[in-house]
């Protein structure tokens, strides 16, 4: 398995994310806790967005697990990523915005791949996405029920999709 992986969410799950299920204040708390835990550095490559010419050092990415039998997308946690690693996670969006070459460079750099390996990995990731996108997925963010903010209070998601 690669250190930096691609994570394409099924089409039926587009825009169904934690940020849309919690208040702006709660999302700010979640992402800041994520950043702090990571020491404001990418948990995959160790770089920061500041070094990459961006405004922020890291971005908060949701970690999902997929139950392909029952079509449930399950939130498992959060990870702080530099913008370049975060872009790899969302290669479909990067492709739409003409940034796939940047994704390939980051895959090659972090995973020590050849360009052919990176291209093949992207192709395989889209095949998985296509297969998953044929189904309607339920999104489970119940992980938040055990996630505590800095005041040791539990989050209460407004909706579990």
Explain this structure to me?
There is one protein chain. Helix content is 39%, strand content 14%. It is α+β, with helices and mostly antiparallel strands and 161 residues long. The chain has a domain at 11-61 and 78-135. Helix 3 packs across helix 5 (100-111) and helix 5 (100-111) packs across helix 6. The longest helix is centred in the C-terminal third of the chain and has 19 residues, at 115-133. It starts with 17 loop residues before the first helix and ends in a 21-residue tail after the last strand.
Write the layout of secondary structure elements.
Elements: H1 18-21, H2 24-37, E1 59-67, E2 72-81, H3 83-89, H4 91-96, H5 100-111, H6 115-133, E3 138-140
Parallel strand pairs: 2-3
Antiparallel strand pairs: 1-2
Helix pairs in contact: 3-5, 5-6
Structure described in brief:
This protein has six helices and three strands; from the N terminus they run ααββααααβ. It is α+β, with helices and mostly antiparallel strands and 161 residues long. The protein has a domain of 109 residues.
Secondary structure tally, helices: 6
Globally, the shape reads globular
Give the CA-CA distance, first to last residue.
30 Å
Give a count of the beta strands, DSSP E runs of length 2 or more.
3
Which sequence of strands runs across the widest sheet?
A: 1-2-3
Structural class: alpha+beta
Strand content: 5-15%
Q: Which structural traits does this protein have?
A:
single chain, 161 residues, alpha+beta
């Amino acid at each position: 398995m690669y250190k930096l992986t691609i994570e394409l969410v099924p089409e039926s799950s587009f825009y169904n994310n934690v940020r849309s299920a919690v208040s702006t204040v709660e999302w700010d708390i979640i992402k800041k806790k994520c950043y702090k835990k990571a020491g404001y550095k990418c948990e995959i490559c160790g770089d920061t967005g500041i070094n990459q010419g961006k405004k922020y050092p890291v971005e908060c990415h949701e970690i999902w697990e997929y139950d392909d039998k029952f079509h449930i997308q399950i939130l498992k946690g959060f990870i702080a990523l530099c913008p370049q690693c975060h872009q790899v996670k969302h290669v479909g969006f990067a492709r739409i915005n003409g940034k796939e070459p940047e994704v390939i460079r980051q895959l090659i750099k972090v995973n020590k791949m050849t360009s052919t390996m990176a291209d093949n990995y992207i192709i395989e990731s889209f095949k998985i996405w296509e297969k998953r996108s044929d189904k309607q997925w339920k999104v489970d963010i119940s992980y938040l029920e055990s996630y505590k903010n800095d005041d040791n209070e539990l989050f209460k998601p407004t909706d579990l999709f």
